[in-house]
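Quick one, T. Sequence first:
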Amino acid sequence: MKIASLVAIAGVLRDADVRYLIVGGLAVAAHGYGRVTFDLDLVLQMQPENLRRAIAALESLGYRPTAPVPAAHFADARMRENWIREKNMVVFQMQSPRHAETPIDLFVTEPFDFDQEHEAALIGEIEPGLSACFNRMTNMSDERLAAQEAAWAEHNLSQLRYFRSLSLRARLEAVAGMADVIRHFQAMRASGGFQQSPPCRTTPSDPG
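Structure tokens:
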């Protein structure tokens, strides 16, 4: 994970007017907890046009699926349903040689009410003039927490397998990069760079 890659990804998603939320370990870090993660977990609003814009934006940064399928298939609801049914897929993984330290996992479903969570998202200005949307941290019931943990189990194993596949040098670079991200988030929090104010907007509001 590198902050420069996060900035690049947030930038192309903003420019493409993509509705998304950053979840997982990076969202936890944005809330002030030093959890280490080695990928960027994204939940996209599952509307076909939004998904097509998102995929095109990520492809512009060199991101391609790790599975032997066209990236455009992610925008097809029937394809995603097949992946879930036949492969128990939780996330659609993408990697880029230009951002090798920052693989992306796209959730194949909306694991929560997207509009509700987007309205309550944590907004982080990761660099001047560029904001990113992070999922809020909520108080959940024991039942809901258990369901969330079950959904994340395979995803976490996949992340661990990815990390183990890296060379020692790549592992050290990944850990150092995540440490830089955590320090960057700490500096943002100290300077008021995070806001918990709905709705999450990555571009200025229309004054009209």
